Amino acid sequence: MALFPKPAETQQLGLFLLNKRLIRIFLGVAFFVLVVLGLVWRQQHDALPVLPPAPGFDEPPGFYPYETVSDYWPVSLDPTGKSTQDLCATFPKHMLSLVQPVLKMGHGEDRTKLDAQLDSVSACFRPDELLIFSDLDERIRNFTAIDILAGLPPKYYDLEYNPDIGNYLLQKELSQNGTLDKDQEATKKVNGWIIDRFKFLPQIERAWLMRPNKPFYFFYETDTYVVWDTVYRFLSTFDPDVPIYMGSPSPGRHDSSRDNLKTWFANGGPGFALSRGAVKALLRRDVAPHGQYSGPTVSEEWLPLIKDECCGDSVVGWTLWNNGVALQGYWPMFNPHPLHGIPFSDRYWCQPIMTLHKTTPKDMVEVWKWEFGQRKFKRPLLYADYWNFHRPGTSDTLDNWDNGDWDASKSGPEQGIDSFEKCEEACKKDDSCVQWNWRGRDEKVCVLARSFRYGEKREPEQRDDKWVDYKSGWIKDRLDKFRQERQCEVVEWVGPSITRVF
Ligand SMILES: *[C@@H]1O[C@H](CO)[C@@H](O)[C@H](O)[C@H]1NC(C)=O
Ligand SMILES: *[C@@H]1O[C@H](CO)[C@@H](O)[C@H](O)[C@H]1NC(C)=O
């Protein structure tokens, strides 16, 4: 379009400009053209991002009747006395073509957690199969942890603009001059948690760059327990070219451009999955007519937000939302509870487990081995199956033990309850109560819960000048009755929901 005349045309143009009537026509036409161009521009920009389904996905009634099979072979074996190698020989390696595992860690993290992760959930992955992203380049066993914070857009390293990055730069310096971990005083100054949020978007970019076009990417952390058999079964039922973002829903930012609609993100701890379609939607950049990128990378674009936000998982949710991808909440398949803290009840007894969070290092390794003896060909492992690991509710009362206060009510001396025995009595009187917990000495609190939890050892604690000790009990009859009545004839696969939450 010759809106801007070339020099050779200027003489002619001079004559042209003399004619006032023609000028008016020209201006009219120009105005019309501009209006049309403006409308086209607006339409294109309104169409992107696609309006996400609002306010999210509703839970469909009933359960999905997915028929799935295990790809492990043999599907199960007695794990007693078996080595990791023996167990991993049954791992369905071909499923790595379906799901790319991506483990995020930090150099400063507790190494027992990392070791437990590599001895359980990640034990069957070879170094060329698992991606490990960290805040420092280092060799871990035979894996190479990649410093995902190196090579970010320059603005990230501007200490005035983004002061928290100083923790990363200091760690790098200490590593380079050989004092990291050796000089404890200096190492203590590195706050690894505070830079964790910067890893979330770059890890998605890098996973795509290193392993492009995988149908699904599964992002998890050192203390995430992942049941790969269930992941493979479940993700096999989805079209990877549809933008899918799934995980355990947490409330995120409000979208001011859409009536302050509340958005959701996947809590990073229980892990999250992205389909190829979702990664593409997230990483899409504007391109100039000659092919050069004209827009920023996703890491660059969202730095102004990340630098002042608490957590990286919420930023992933928000950026996906802004690219037209809303979270599909799959709690409790993605469960923020640890194994010892699962509140077993009627609520999701017959549903499959995909992930757990903050399971103890010891439990991670033990339940992982145990799983090899439990797997079934035609149905995934359910909460009902995992109950068998700790068998909560079958034990006698336990001193110095805390079975928790999830889904519970509290009472005390004001209600005439001033001892462990009185607390037990109160539980027995309440038909919905299945376990109780007495917080004694100075505290005097009776906790009555509606779900069976294993819980954990808890020694007496002093807070200010007050002491508290913990004693737990379970009503075994109610557990037996419940288990007899609740046989899992159908696998209760749930649909996506952001109203069914943790
Ligand atoms: C690491 O690799 C070496 C050489 O391939 C191999 O012999 C060794 O068993 C591996 N170690 C682990 C922990 O996988
Ligand atoms: C290593 O780097 C840190 C941080 O800059 C510095 O404080 C320390 O003195 C250095 N140590 C050596 C041995 O160079």
Automatic annotation (TrEMBL):
The keyword Signal does not apply. It is a single-pass type II membrane protein. Its main location: membrane. InterPro entries: C1GALT1/C1GALT1_chp1, Fringe-like_glycosylTrfase. Coiled coil: none annotated. Pathway: Protein modification; protein glycosylation. It comes from the Eukaryota. It is an enzyme of class 2 (transferase). Belongs to the glycosyltransferase 31 family. Beta3-Gal-T subfamily. This is N-acetylgalactosaminide beta-1,3-galactosyltransferase. It comes from Hypocrea jecorina (strain QM6a) (Trichoderma reesei).
